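Lecture notes, continued. The same structure-token format from the folding unit now serves as the input rather than the output. Read the line below as a description of shape only.
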């Protein structure tokens, strides 16, 4: 993965074309997740595992066909979402049902997600995510602050729409194959969000940095938490964001962005603990 990032920087610096780098990033998440699950299941004591690790632990060496099928699963190899081997094997074996009910058809949720993906990609035909004017000082000086801020808001949204499209479409394809079923809610309705990678309305209307990161690229966030945050013995938040920056590539901007998010997140946690209990009544 690192070699592919370096090669891409050398041959297409600041480029934004789709190539083999994306699949190698997905494979890296899957392989490292598998390594952690096998390690938890074969080399760690049960009492040392948290609830999540107990559920995902693999207590045997996976067969070659299981490993290859999981790693190169066609529904997620290009843009994700990533998932764990335990969930994948439960899907393959047909043991992912809950409450004694069979797994329902995924056609309706897949169709709804396909329509949602089409909705988001349609915005890219209406507006172009052209960043060039924003970096032109003469252009910025010739327009008002509100115009520039509005332009930036629109192109950021259009850029996010491209990700919404890719992730929701991949989720739709997975649901159509029967993968993604997550049991039933209190009303008896089937949930198809086990491998959902983004929740657009929560992302767009997030009230904090935590809410934003919990609903954007969900699979990657879970991967970072499980392989790094929960296993780091020193500065877990900083180590997690450092890993995230390295996983994305070696552009300096990645490190400036993600390491600054460490400061923002730690600060927001402190403010939430200190300020919110004294300024907000949850009953109102």
């Amino acid at each position: 993965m690192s070699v592919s990032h370096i090669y891409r920087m050398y041959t297409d610096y600041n480029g934004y074309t789709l190539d083999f780098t994306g699949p190698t990033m997905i494979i890296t998440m899957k392989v490292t997740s598998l390594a952690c699950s096998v390690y938890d299941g074969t080399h760690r004591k049960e009492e040392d595992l948290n609830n999540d690790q107990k559920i995902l632990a693999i207590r045997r060496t996976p067969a070659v066909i299981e490993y290859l099928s999981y790693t190169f699963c066609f529904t997620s190899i290009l843009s994700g979402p990533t998932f764990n081997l335990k969930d994948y094997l439960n899907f393959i074996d047909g043991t992912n049902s809950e409450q004694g009910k069979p797994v329902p058809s995924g056609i309706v949720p897949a169709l709804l997600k396909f329509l949602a993906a089409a909705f988001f990609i349609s915005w890219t035909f209406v507006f172009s995510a052209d960043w060039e004017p924003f970096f032109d000082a003469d252009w910025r000086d010739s327009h008002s602050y509100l115009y520039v801020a509005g332009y930036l808001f629109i192109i950021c949204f259009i850029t996010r729409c491209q990700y919404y499209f890719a992730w929701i479409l991949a989720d739709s394809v997975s649901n159509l194959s029967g993968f993604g079923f997550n049991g039933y809610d209190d009303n008896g309705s089937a949930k198809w969000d086990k491998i959902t990678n983004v929740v657009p309305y929560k992302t767009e209307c997030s009230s904090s940095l935590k809410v934003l990161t919990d609903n954007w690229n969900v699979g990657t966030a879970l991967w970072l938490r499980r392989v790094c945050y929960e296993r780091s013995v020193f500065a877990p938040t900083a180590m997690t964001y450092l890993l995230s920056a390295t996983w994305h590539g070696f552009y300096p901007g990645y490190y400036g962005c993600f390491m600054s998010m460490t400061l923002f997140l730690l600060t927001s946690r402190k403010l939430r603990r200190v300020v919110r209990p004294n300024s907000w009544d949850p009953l109102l």
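Point for the exam: The chain has a mean pLDDT of 90.
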